[in-house]
Design goal:
By secondary structure, the protein is of the alpha/beta class. The protein folds into 2 domains: 186 residues, NAD(P)-binding Rossmann-like Domain (Rossmann fold), CATH 3.40.50.720; 86 residues, Alpha-Beta Complex (UDP-galactose 4-epimerase, domain 1), CATH 3.90.25. Helix 6 crosses helix 8. It is globular and about 55 Å long. InterPro entries: Epimerase_deHydtase, NAD(P)-bd_dom_sf, NAD(P)-dependent_oxidoreduct. This is NAD-dependent epimerase/dehydratase family protein. Pfam families: Epimerase.
């Protein structure tokens, strides 16, 4: 099938594009710059020029495709007001894409994060948050899934806190950046809190499986590592960078501090059993061995 994809040059998106093309699908990818367009064309995708805010362009991409994967999220972490704008933009984009597919029974996949559940790993049956600073993303995802009742095979892939490739990406990547900046491989609290993770190429395989066969209105967990402790993550980073590994205040991580301090393991048992998904690429702790001093 021809798949329209947004966010096709990111850590996850580039892996999804490669996975789709390697499995007899064609890709039409949104590109907002000449550099992005060249990258996508070099990978073998066709390009549709435009931005996530160009709703007419999004509708046109969906109209000429057999399915949609929406991955783009244009948040600048240096802008304190950028998160709210990015969430609103993403919600408008999902609504436009979903409306274009109503009555077609074509698939659309959106992305969210795995939820945190006190005392146990979260599962696919747990709801995603719809309040707090990122609650708008949860509401947009839920609205898209509700289109299952209107002839859209809408699904969601929930990504863990770290999607990694070659030692880069996700929350672990932010710890690497902070360590380089401060000279300390730091972790909040006692470091016993757990973060789930997945290699980008394993996540890409799941996106393809969901696109090809997942029932409408369903959510799936792209979790390979149920939960590595933040202390273990920081220890590998410190060893690779030759830096001391020490506890630091939550405030050292800015707005991410309270999130970094949370214990948030997640399970993918149902996803593996129902779709036959089996991660095969390096774990997060193995992949962090690629971090360069």
């Amino acid at each position: 099938m021809q798949v329209f994809i947004t966010g096709g040059t990111g850590t996850v998106g580039s892996a999804v594009v490669a996975e789709l093309l390697a499995n007899d699908h064609t890709v039409l990818a949104l590109a907002r710059s000449d550099d992005s367009a060249r990258t996508l064309e070099d990978a073998g995708a066709k390009v549709l020029r435009g931005e996530l805010a160009d709703l007419d362009v999004l509708r046109a991409g969906a109209a000429q495709s057999d399915g949609v994967i929406s991955l783009a999220f244009s948040h600048d972490f240096s802008d304190p007001d950028g998160l709210a704008r990015a969430i609103a933009q993403e919600g408008a984009a999902l609504a436009a894409l979903g409306d274009e597919l109503v009555g077609s029974n074509r698939p659309i996949i959106t992305v969210s994060g795995t939820p945190g559940v006190p005392g146990r790993p979260s599962t696919e049956a747990d709801p995603i948050p719809t309040d707090g600073p990122v609650g708008g993303r949860g509401r947009s995802v839920n609205a898209l899934l509700e289109l299952a009742s209107r002839g859209v095979r809408a699904t969601a892939v929930r990504l863990p806190r770290t999607v990694h490739n070659e030692g880069r990406g996700g929350f672990a990547g932010l710890l690497v950046d902070a360590a380089r900046r401060t000279g300390v491989s730091g972790y909040p609290g006692d470091g016993a809190q757990r973060w789930p993770a997945v290699h980008a190429r394993d996540a890409a395989t799941l996106f393809r499986l969901v696109l090809e066969s997942a029932p409408p209105g369903t959510a799936w967990h792209a979790v390979a590592d149920e939960g590595d402790t933040v202390h273990d993550i920081a220890t590998v980073i410190g060893r690779r960078l030759g830096l001391p590994v020490e506890p630091v205040p939550e405030s050292a991580f800015g707005p991410f501090g309270p999130i970094f301090a949370m214990d948030q393991p997640s399970s993918s048992t149902h996803t593996r059993q129902a779709l036959g998904w089996q991660p095969t690429h390096p774990s997060l702790l193995e992949d962090l061995e690629n971090v360069q001093p």
